[in-house]
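Schema walk-through. Below, the input block comes first and the output block second. Nothing else is stored per chain. Lengths vary across the set, and this one has 141 residues.
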Amino acid sequence: MPDKAATKLRNDGWSIVETTGFLHLIGPLWQRLVDGEYEYALATEDKHHNRRGLVQGGVLMTFADRTCGMTARYVSGKPTLATVQLDTHFVEAGKIGEVLISKPRVVRSTRSLIFITTEVTVEKRVIAMANGVFKILKSET
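--- output ---
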C-alpha cells in the first residue's frame, strides 16, 4: 500500500486489524471507533484490480462480508459466527488507489441470527451495497 494512504489513515485515527489467511492477502484492513460504532477502510492497490483495471467485485464482496461479520461479532459478543447469506449490489466502479469505507449497521438481532447492512463508499460515492445474515455458532469446547 502506498505510504501516503497509510499515513493519512493513521492520522485520521484508523488502526490496522490483525488478519490471517485469505483476508491477509486482501488487506490490510483498517478500523476505527466513531461515536461507539466501528467503521472500516481498505486502501485499494494494484493487487485488487480486475481485467478492466478497476476494483474487483470479489474484493468489494469480501470487504462487505468481513466488515459486517466483525460487526455481528461485536454486537453478539460471540467469537464464532458464519455468513448465512450476503446479497451484494454493485453500484459504481471503484478505482485502484481509492480508499473504500464500510460502516455496517445492525438491522435486527435475534438469539441465533444477526441481520446487517452496509454501503461501501468512496468519499460520497456509493460503490456497493450489501445485506448480510450471520448465524451465531455454538462454541466448540
